[in-house]
Amino acid sequence: MRLMWTPSDDEDIPDQYHAALPDGRWHDGVQDPDTAGIAEAAQETVQAVLWQVWPVCREHRSGVHAGAGADERAVWWCRVDEGHELCEVGELAQTLPGKQRRALRRKERRRAG
């Protein structure tokens, strides 16, 4: 995904930030591009455009939600049972099984280099 900025032509209407898919499609936007807001916008884009639940807690096979951790960090939070923190926003790749995580790193290296 990529972050897109839509400036406003009207000073009474704030600029919008969108989490867009690689092909440029996005759904809804946020006015404050903080980490949790962008994470929520990304989640909404995947759900509305691709009709998929994302991200998913591997332990409970349930969708997770962006929120604040105990120390106010932006985290992905699983609400099943008593709830638990899945990971910090931006660190989802670390939750993948080893084989998928290594494949993702190889793909990123090819793209960068």
Count of alpha and pi helical runs: 2
Helix-strand pattern: EEHEEEEEH
Low-pLDDT stretches are none
User: How many strand segments?
Assistant: 7
Give the overall average pLDDT: 88
Identify the strand order in the major beta sheet. Answer: 5-6-7
Percent strand equals: 15-25%
Give a short account of the largest sheet.
3 strands, antiparallel
End-to-end gap? 19 Å
What's the helical proportion of residues?
A: 25-40%
Task: Describe the protein's architecture and organization.
This protein has about 110 residues and is of the alpha+beta class. It folds into two domains: about 1-55, no CATH class; about 60-113, no CATH class. The chain is about 25% helix and about 25% strand. The chain is built from two helices and seven strands. The strands form three sheets. The chain has a three-stranded antiparallel β-sheet, covered by helices on one side. A two-stranded antiparallel sheet has the order 1-2. It has a two-stranded antiparallel sheet with strand order 3-4. The chain is globular. The two termini are about 20 Å apart. The mean pLDDT is about 90.
